[in-house]
Write a structure and sequence with these properties.
With 277 residues, this protein is mainly beta. The longest helix is centred in the N-terminal third of the chain and has 9 residues. It starts with 7 loop residues before the first strand and ends with a strand.
């Protein structure tokens, strides 16, 4: 706002925000992060507590793609691709998650977040957090990462154009190892722009209960549709009635609706742009 007064009028429009706990003027500015080193590292180790940019050689030791577990190139690459931190047992071929998220090399033409609980099939009744990533490089490659929060497994499926999909299953979920014990927490890091970030459709749930999602891009993030929680933790309108209780203010915490659901969107060098039509 251009005024320190509690309300401000310009061009016939009055802006009068309401803060439930009041507000204080003349406060020091909060310094914004200068880089996204921590976010990028969090994909690798689930900690993100370093102060240096992870090297390609280090990423090669941690990250593999879905097609046969090919490591991230130790000399770096600009070729689009999706990688996850996991190891493969030499004795039985079991894949095990070792880090905190998903690394996307290059731009993502779209990222769609979906919260779903199937009513049939092998994952019936399981709470799933689904991340669908599309990249365009002459053709379209679609990578779908399904976090089964019930069975604690991660499934990755990738399809190039209309070709036959390849898939792999990883035991475990992306974890935040800074917590004791570690908790599920998926960092999606895109080393480029996210040209479209959305949920599955207007009014449909994007963030599953107990799912902690952070979306980070090296460049711009363009939000093109609703990104909603399955269980809203706060009110979204004035005088909203939830479970028989009416809350007069927007953004009021709803008792009983805190299910560990988290969404963060971050870029250190780009902009988060709203283009939700």
């Amino acid at each position: 706002m251009r005024s320190a007064n509690p309300s401000y009028k310009q061009n016939g429009t009055t802006i009068a925000p309401s803060f439930q706990d009041g507000y204080k003027l003349g406060q020091n500015a909060v310094a914004l992060p200068q880089n996204d080193f921590n976010q990028k590292e969090a994909v690798l180790d689930g900690l993100g507590n370093g102060s240096e940019l992870p090297t390609s050689a280090n990423m090669s030791l941690q990250l593999k793609n879905v097609s046969g577990g090919t490591p991230y190139p130790s000399g770096g690459t600009t070729n689009p691709g999706v990688y996850l931190p996991y190891t493969t047992s030499s004795s039985n071929g079991t894949n095990t998650m070792t880090g905190g998220g998903i690394y996307v090399e290059g731009n993502a033409s779209s990222v769609v977040l979906t919260a779903t609980t199937p009513s049939s099939g092998p994952q019936k009744g399981h709470n799933l957090q689904v991340i669908t990533i599309q990249q365009t490089n002459g053709g379209t490659t679609t990578t779908t990462v399904t976090l089964d929060l019930t069975s604690q497994t991660t499934t990755v499926q990738q399809q190039v154009g209309s070709g036959t999909p390849t898939s792999t299953t990883i035991q475990g979920l992306p974890q935040n190892y800074a917590n004791t014990p570690p908790t599920e927490s998926a960092m999606l890091y895109v080393d480029g722009s996210i040209n479209s970030l959305s949920g599955p459709g207007q009014g449909q749930a994007a963030i599953q209960d107990t799912s902690a999602m952070t979306i980070t891009a090296a460049d711009n993030v363009v939000v093109t549709g609703d990104v909603l929680y399955k269980t809203p933790p706060v009110t979204t309108t004035q005088n909203e009635t939830v479970n028989g209780v009416t809350y007069p203010n927007v953004d009021t915490l709803i008792p009983g609706n805190n299910n560990g659901q988290v969404l963060g969107i971050f870029t250190a060098s780009g902009n988060v742009q709203m283009n939700d039509k």
